[in-house]
Amino acid sequence: MEARSSAGEIHVIVGPMFAGKTTALLRRVQSELDGGRTAVIIKSSKDMRYGLNCAVTHDGAKMPCWALAELSMFRDKLGAEAYGKLDVIGIDEAQFFEDLYEFCCSAADHDGKIVIVAGLDGDYLRKKFGSVLDIIPLADTVTKLTACCQLCGRRAFFTLRKTKETQTELIGGADVYMPVCREHYANGDIVIQATRNRVGS
I need a surface site. Which of 22, 90, 149, 153 has the fewest CB within 10 A? Predict the structure, then answer.
């Protein structure tokens, strides 16, 4: 096993919903485990779609995780000795952690951890979501994933909300959101109405 850099690393995976961010995170963490490193995954306790104790992809792949309200809780929850022996920290649904920037700085710069972050870079309005974009300047690598537009099959860069709720944080799956290309995002009102008509018919 290669010696870990004392400075640590930060790798960021972003994209719209259904782009495979959690899948990419789990694969990367599994690769680190296969390489002999110790690793854990943290996700927000707000996300209870598939239960609290696992990070789960939309197609059912999963790994055990810690569900926390704040990342700052992690070191105390894990214990100082176990934290000191830890090599890799994966963070899923990172947009929900308000202390993401501070945690990543501390874990990578001071504790020498490899931090792999997966989250939405924008909300359903294509506005900044949480602190994910704030950590881009900290990152060693940034991967922007795309989904498949649910309406035309082209590459989807955006997340369209199908319901009338307007709050930024509305946790849901395909019942609430769909990945869309630029054209269908721009025609969002028409798309949403057509979707409702199709469901109601």
Answer: 153
* Count of domains forming the chain: 2
Handedness of CA 13, 56, 103, 105 (dihedral sign): negative
CATH number at residue 199: 3.30.60.20
Query: Are the C-beta atoms of 152 and 143 separated by less than 8 Å?
Result: no
Q: Is 101 known to sit in a ligand binding site?
A: no
Terminal Cα-to-Cα distance of the chain (whole angstroms): 58
CA separation for the pair 96, 42 (Å, rounded)? 11
Do 151 and 141 have their domain in common?
Answer: no
Please identify every residue annotated as catalytic.
93
10-residue block means of pLDDT along the chain (201 residues)? 66 96 94 96 82 72 88 95 96 96 97 97 92 97 96 94 82 83 83 52 42
Same domain, yes or no: 164 and 184: yes
Provide the whole-model pTM.
0.86
* 28 and 103 both lie in a single domain: yes
- How far, in Å, CA of 140 to CA of 180, rounded? 29
One domain, residues 131 and 151 = no
DSSP letter at 121 equals S
Q: From residue 197, how far is each of 39, 172, 187, 189, 201 by CA, in Å?
A: 46, 20, 16, 12, 6
CATH number at residue 106: 3.40.50.300
Q: How many CA atoms lie within 13 A of 42 on its CB side?
A: 24
